[in-house]
Amino acid sequence: MNNLRKLPIGVQSFKVLRNDRYLYVDKTEYLFRLVQSGRVYFLSRPRRFGKSLFLSTLAAYFLGQKELFTGLYLEKAEEEQARFEQRTAWEAYPVLYLDFNVGKYTDSGALNERLHIMLCAEESVYGISPSKEEQPFFASRFEKFLKIVYQQTGKQVVILVDEYDKPLLQTMGVNETLNEQYRNTLKAFYSVIKTCDQYIRFAFLTGVTKFSKISIFSDLNNLEDISLRNDYAGICGITEQELEQNFEPEIEALSIAEGLTRSKTLAALKKQYDGYLFAKAGVNVYNPFSLLSAFKAKDFGSYWFSTGTPTFLVNYLKEAHYFIPDLDGKVELNESGLDTYRAVTENALPILFQSGYLTIIGYIKEARLYK
């Protein structure tokens, strides 16, 4: 029991995870299906659920980093698909990675500064130097970047966006004027993904929340939202099958530390960390941050909750006037209500679900209602 594996708590780089031999639950089958079946996707999942790591895995694939996928589902699947399509396997593409996790957005100009920094870093690689007059027009710079990269490389660009909604969440209920400015800026910026479709190989956007299409993604009618899809319910998080297949040494060590049998340890893990359901007929998943933290500490703690409730959610609930115990198993929502939320709404249920504080416990098929 002295040779437990390295657990990737907080590891967001797929390259670091693989090269440094951290334990990895293979999610590359989901990646393969996404790449083969569509081009522009959106995924909403709670914080600390593995969204950043999945984006990093996508980046590694599109950069042609074959060596990182040794022994994983994608290694064989990519080779077989390439032979079937009579193309070169592991073809590399230019990757534009936009990470909004970095920075604080409560100050005016913070979003513009972050967009400028991210675009400058990518523009410099291809010798693009926007004039001082061009710099504040981020949508135009984004469009110009995609066109020039395509002209220089002959290849379409892959766009990966991490936590697209962080600037909006940090200003929601705090500074509505700035929040509105951010919505307008981001709406124009993301609309480029539609207008420059011919220059884009693949795009994947993630966030905690799904802002209403009329506020952010109204121009992005080619966006495929997989957040509530049954076939992608397990894309982030750890399923019960993955738990038992991948974590046997950790389960045994935790059992010894707690003085429990294996079956009682699994039951305790399920009670404490399982139960997240993101689709009406999908698979339940464990919170990965909490599960890995429990294995590392050999203790059933409240790890995810102890990292802090987001400020935006605290403010939102104060305004909504909900008595939280009344929500436990006693509310129903249709799909449009669960799928979409706007910052101006008085209904806190969708944001509680998207933030990971409520989950689906059932689906009434005849009424098309989630419980």
Automatic annotation (TrEMBL):
Domain AAA-ATPase-like: 8-217
Pfam families recorded: AAA-ATPase_like
Transmembrane segments: none
Name of the protein in question: AAA-ATPase-like domain-containing protein
Species name: Treponema vincentii ATCC 35580
